[in-house]
């Protein structure tokens, strides 16, 4: 690694500190923006193309799969070539693919463009978390992670509402045009970005990709990666199943669905702020443990009472949304703290594992057939139990300094 001192933690001449945080938040939001904006249109898209819900759902599932694979490609490369060049290339591909989605006339063509959109968007997420570690240290880093993630989860609240209100005036194609414009806005910020990486990996491109294995050999990082990625199994299961639960199961309109979806998103938004407040009064270890326990209880409530109606379902799931979000800043901070180098590789693995586990949740929830509400509750409860056991094992074996 070379480490030129004049490039270490350079200030952002054009963006400034606040502008950098906003850009990082926007880049981190590419997954929810690219999925949640068109969620209200998902059931109707199946009718438009005259295909099954399972085939339409591939536009979601394959997006997450290839987004995950793209992270493993872009993350290590950002350690080798820098965050800014990787970001610019990825955003260019994302913009072009979003435009391709908007003009697709066949579901299979749409799936292909969604895959390309995922590969391009993954570059944004791969460098976003790495940039936080590049620039911030200690408590400040944890605070920025919480702030960025709270800003990120605004998109699940705003995107479905915006998508639902756009649909009377445009088709699903217009929603993809909106995503292309979001990519353009991100590109403008990336052009103003000053490189953040303090030192670059000096090996070959192939060797930089192989650094993923070196990061995974760190037992502290690997154990935390599994535990905190399990949270995404429950959260993305909800993202995938929510339009069918609210619209097909409860018979709500697209607009009412977006409001109920936003109710759970409020928990996601408040979670990181709740963590920051709790961290002033309790240890990180106890907060995370309590968060996992609440996930279990909330999952049980969904199983027992979620089928009574949309409000009962949303309220029963709310604690899991709140506490599942509140543990994320602590998890990201602890995982990044395990690696002094290979930050891009670590960031890529964190995001990739989250999406892989999340994609599994998206598939698992539909195995319950018409009992989607019960299935979602069961997934939350099971994920919470698994996280609790893993968290206890990490503490017992002292793999991580809390």
From TrEMBL:
Its main location: membrane. One of its GO terms (molecular function) is xenobiotic transmembrane transporter activity. Residues 20-402 form the Major facilitator superfamily (MFS) profile domain. It is a multi-pass membrane protein. InterPro entries: Efflux_drug-R_Bcr/CmlA (IPR004812), MFS (IPR011701), MFS_dom (IPR020846), MFS_trans_sf (IPR036259). Keywords: Cell membrane, Membrane, Transmembrane, Transmembrane helix, Transport. The chain crosses the membrane at residues 20-39, 51-74, 86-105, 111-132, 144-166, 172-193, 221-245, 257-278, 287-307, 313-336, 348-368, 374-394. Gene3D superfamilies: Multidrug resistance protein D. The keyword Zinc does not apply. It is found in: Cell membrane. GO terms for biological process: xenobiotic detoxification by transmembrane export across the plasma membrane. Pfam families: MFS_1. One of its GO terms (cellular component) is plasma membrane. PROSITE patterns: MFS (PS50850). Belongs to the major facilitator superfamily. Bcr/CmlA family. This is Membrane protein. It comes from Methanoculleus sediminis.
